[in-house]
């Protein structure tokens, strides 16, 4: 069984479009995260939700809006896509937060043309 | 997070032990040391973590110095599938992991 899953795995789109990436975890965890890995391979936290409540927002442009309908899901919606948004986006979850082990999804490779 | 320093790369022969060092001289008393790895194009994978005592699991061993200023991740019998970027992280009561550049480990046949 997949612990943390993301859809789609690949996403190719034009500049200016709006797109969403979905994430689901079946681990019963309370905290979920979105990370971005750019072409230089550095992984950076974008958002974190604990029990559907936003707890981390790391100076991400407001074109990015996370939504957590329940604690097993954390979706990422991106408006007005730009070339610089091209990256791999990873979802992760942890039991609570505060340094707990995080489990990552397989990633979504977003390419903006 | 406490700052961690790792060598940028290292090679290892298949079947031999791989010893990956990490310096974390500013680590505080209640910060755990975590190790993750990222195999090409996959999501980061948890390996092991520890506070003071040495730890071992099915993947690796973690040796932490008594002063806790450095640690070593040991892959006892490296295989080609262990080729990856290995990250040493010390998150302090924080919801986020700060990934540095890590150590790129290449296991050669």
Give structural notes.
The complex is a heterodimer of chains A (113) and B (109). The mean pLDDT of chain A is 91. Chain A has no helices and eleven strands. Chain A has 113 residues and is mainly β. Chain B is an all-beta fold and 109 residues long. Helices cover 0% and strands 43% of the residues of chain B. Chain B is built from no helices and nine strands. The mean pLDDT of chain B is 91.
| Helical content of chain A (DSSP H or I, runs of 4+) | under 10%
| Percent range for β-strand residues of chain A | over 45%
What structural class should be given to the helix and strand makeup of chain A?
mainly beta
Low-confidence stretches of chain B: none
What do the pLDDT scores of chain A average to? 91
Average pLDDT rating of chain B:
91
Class based on secondary structure composition and strand pairing of chain B: mainly beta
Number of helices of chain A: 0
The general outline of chain A is globular
Which word captures the global form of chain B? globular
Order of helices and strands of chain B: EEEEEEEEE
Roughly how much helix do the residues of chain B carry, as a percent range? Answer: under 10%
Give a count of the beta strands of chain A, DSSP E runs of length 2 or more.
Answer: 11
